[in-house]
Amino acid sequence: MTLTPVEIRHVELGRRPLGYDRRATDDLLERIVVSYEATWRERADLLEENERLQGELERFRELEVLLRQTLVSAERAAEDIRAQARREADLVLEQARSDARETVRQAESERERLNADLRRLRSLESDMQAEYKAFLLRSLERAEFDDKRRRKAEAEARMRLGVEEGRAPMTEPDPTAGS
Fold first, then answer.
1. Is residue 179, in this structure, part of any structural domain at all?
2. How many structural domains comprise the chain?
3. What is the dihedral of CA 174, 176, 178, 179, to 10 degrees?
4. What one-character DSSP code corresponds to residue 167?
């Protein structure tokens, strides 16, 4: 347990008729000694840490000088590389522009061809839809006609069946009459 100077100043030792309480005074002195020893060890640790950090600082300063020299060298090399890259980029750019013009020409030709194909396919689609619609209408008419014929045949069969059994024929409305 460490004591701060403020704590030591405010410690009140109990008094006895012949002076301070010896036990309380001895306890206080023991606490002061422990606190002082801890402070002394901490100071020694901090001195060691300071020496270590001073050594690191010196190494970092040496490293900084080396890094600055390297940086200047790298900047010179980078400028040379940039100049060479600019020259190469100009050549590449000119070639790319030429290639782009050719690609655009080919793309426009392809687009025209695709537009012609699209128009042809749309026309074909329209024709196919019209033919399919006509087919469906014919099929529907055929199905309706077949349905009317089937109902008429069923009605005739029921009438014949009624005559054969000796009953009066049942009259049913003609299914084809309403259409």
1. no
2. 1
3. 180
4. P
Is residue 140, in this structure, part of any structural domain at all? Answer: yes
User: Model's pTM, two decimal places?
Assistant: 0.33
Alpha carbon distance 33, 26 (integer Å):
10
Residue position matching structure tokens 């040496």: 62
Spatial separation of the C-alpha atoms in residues 174 and 153, rounded to whole Å: 11
**Using one digit for the tens of pLDDT, what is the confidence trace for 114-150?**
999 999 999 999 999 999 999 999 999 999 999 999 9
Range of the domain at 160: 5-164
CA 131, 132, 137, 140: dihedral to nearest 10 degrees? Answer: 140
Q: Are 152 and 174 in contact (CB under 8 A)?
A: yes
User: Does residue 137 belong to any structural domain of this protein?
Assistant: yes
